[in-house]
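Q: What does the assembled structure look like for these inputs?
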Amino acid sequence: MGRIGAILLGLAAPFAGAQTGFPERPIDIVTHASPGGGTDATARAVARGMRTALDADLSVLPRTGGGGVVAMSYVNSRPRDGYTLLAITPTHLFAMARGQGPLSIDDVVGVARAADDPIVVMVRADSDVASLAELVELGRERPIKWGTTQIGGVDHIAGATLADRTGARLSVVPFAGGGEIVTNLMGGSIDAAGLNLTEALDQIQRGDFRALAVMSEERVRRIGDVPTTVELGYDVVFSTVRGYLVLEGSPEDRIEILEPARLEGMGQPAYLDYLEGSGLEPGSVAGREEWDGQVRRLYRDARDAMIALGIVQAE
Amino acid sequence: MEPSGLGIAFSLLTDPVVLGLIVAGTVAGVIIGALPGLSSSMGVALLLPFSLYLEPVPAIALLSALYCAGTFGGSITAVLINAPGAPPAVATAFDGYPMALKGEAGRALGIAAVSSVSGGIISVLTLLLAAPLLARIAYSFGPPEYFALGVFALSMLASIGAESALKNLIGGCLGLLIATVGIDLTTGVERFTFGVPQLLEGVQFIPVLIGLFAVTELLNQARHLGRESVSATMSALRLPSREDFRRVRNTILRSSGIGVFVGVLPAEGSTMAAMIGYNEAKRWSKAPEEFGKGSIEGVAGPEAANNAATGGAMVPTLALGIPGSATAAVILGGLQVQGLRPGPYLFEEQPTLLYGIFLAMLLANILFLFIGLFGAKVFSRISLVPRTFLWPTVFALCLVGAYGLNQSMVDVWIMIVSGLVGYVLKRNGFGPAPIIMGIVLGGLIETSLAQSLIIFDQQWSGFLRQPIAAGLLLAAVSVGGRPLRRFLGGLLARTAGSARRA
Amino acid sequence: MKRPLHLLANRDSLAGVAVVGVCAVAWRLTAGFDEVPAILSQNVPPTFFPRLVIGTAALLGGLLVAGGIRRCAREAADQAAADDPSTPIDKARGAVLPPPVFWATAGLIAAAGVLVPLVGTLFTLGLVAIALPLLWGERRFRLVLALALGLPGAIYVVFTVALGVRFPVGQVWNLL
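A:
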């Protein structure tokens, strides 16, 4: 029975521990993606780093669905006390731009950026499509079955923008997370997907998937032979920027504890190894000032893209 | 793959600390699984921070031992108080609770324990031999196949329980409708939320499960207080006989196969597996009329299947990085925390760890045989508690279980309303199990249907061009369409009859 | 002739009518869902699946009504043949109202939901542990008292101390 006692103590410790100052209980990181995708993996890697930096427990809470709306609603239902962090991607900003969910851009404060994960257009290795031009050509003949993580999310808008500029047609198939898209692309249910580099690096390097283009201005080091959309003459640049927010109104002194802890957590070898292992640049970590500004810039870009596609009416 | 991996893994498990952890995980799992409202996924989540201080193999061994044992734990309350601790144990209550009412609680729990262990061991052995191969099955399952599988599992409702097939199917529809409450996963639109913010995330199935089963049974007890209860005899403690085990041997084998297969698919595997396992046990049984009245095959069928599915669920988790169940999702988190990257290449890169995990699960199952049989003896004593003390305790656990999940009063009200409404429904022949099945499978069915229709360009006929999906849908129609055919057949016979009379 | 109405008055048909009624209400609710642009719904609007399910349930409900009528008609015909009009059609199904203790138990369950936010979870559980056994005719008062104290205590130890679940304390205590 001693062992059970030890485990119960182990369970109790996080709740009974340090009674002074912030944080005195576990901090939740709320994500919108199911386990197995890039957002989930990043959140867990960051939580690992922060655990040491803050000397507190962090747990990752997936609240899947509705283009981040479920996650945002959940965060909105929690007290604004700094114990709940929202992991965001541009998908959340797209949802805000559509007026969905309880939060607007003025309700959030950026804490830190974790990673900048470009979108890579890919098909299965045995596909007839060998280049982005051929994919566009296919899309002019029949709708491309395009796998995305969320309807109205960044990978959907990326595909829709590409289609809009080239006259190709798209059938967007929504999945709960990057992991599911990988299986479905592998299984042949969909033609192509705009997956994040972190989600499909293994499959690209092993030759299961063929990367057609990176939706960025500059090539990515880990898959240096893959051209960018800009090089190929398509001005379609999208990237999944992952970072963390708290809600407006959270105590300032707690944000001031969280930000350096985040950064310290992300500066640890464990996190840098994670970035390296998943093919991301170490420079993708950024602090509150830079990140908060970027969030607002991304929001404006998201609005512009959606106005261009006719999803949102310009005011 | 190489035998040395197996050898290293084996030596890890002869470590007394690892063994101790597996025993602790098993005991904790049985208790957590048995308490309504505490599920094995919650238990695993609670242990996750603690497992960080361990090496990868012991950590995962601890989590997976808890996972295996938790699935069995859910059936303890299903048998004793008709309140399944978790959805995979719903089918166990069909025959387990009638057995307990007949004063055979120990026999039912003993069968459940042995079936669980057998299912678990068979699934782990299958994993050891064929995990990479099984992972391929998951690739051949796209949205149309998942939709068809979900519909197939729901069609099983037509043949469970003593009540009418039509009513079961209507109950399933009610469950599917409850599952649509909240924010629509694809469009982000609010549905049936009535302005209650807590409903945005949808109706949690645990409070509904607790209400429909436990509270409804509490009301049933209140209504029949005058009747003598037969369970309060010492025979309730008797474990199953050798003859009993011989009778359920084939059921266990069949259900284990079903469980492994369904568990491999990354979906709510255990619940579906248990339902299909129950149904197949009934279909192949020599005494199908005993089902629903306390058949030992009716306990063995779902129990072997749901535990086999726990092993199966580890396949997509490890081989694809896609969790095969809610609990496997948390274990996946644990693997990532340990710095591992589950995915198609894990089998080539880290065979030692994989074999460690499989052997830990195997060992957990073997230890669990003893803990389970001992537990059956201990827990069956609960059926000796006078009901004037048992049911207040059950209600307390219901309240705490519903509240503890999200610490929300809305969940408590969902539990209470489900109980009261569930009683009225049950009195009118609408049992609780179909509603739960509908809620559990609703998300999968809706999402995969929407995905399929987009892939098929809105053509329903697309399903017929996918052989696996078409086969499953055909099977579903042949099972679920039975009441419709019987109805039409009766109508024809009657028209013919009245024509003759005239 | 009151025959058609009479035939409808059986358990299955009435349940079927109720199912169809609930479906009608649910369908009306789906009409209130927000519209979404076509590019976002991909031609599968948020109303699609709920309406598919509601339609199916209504169809099954209709079958239930028809099945009940058919069985009733057959039983009526059998009775007519046996020339025994005195037997009630829906025999042995004549509703027996549940005993008062049933209603009291149902009321106690609902009351517990109201009490939790007022006097707190553990206190409510203590009250339930006294009220329910007494209601059900238990007269071993010492055991009842032991349960009323032991149950909340055990739950506090397992859930709050070991698992960290915090229960509502109750607003009434703040007023004191």
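The longest helix of chain C spans residues 48-82.
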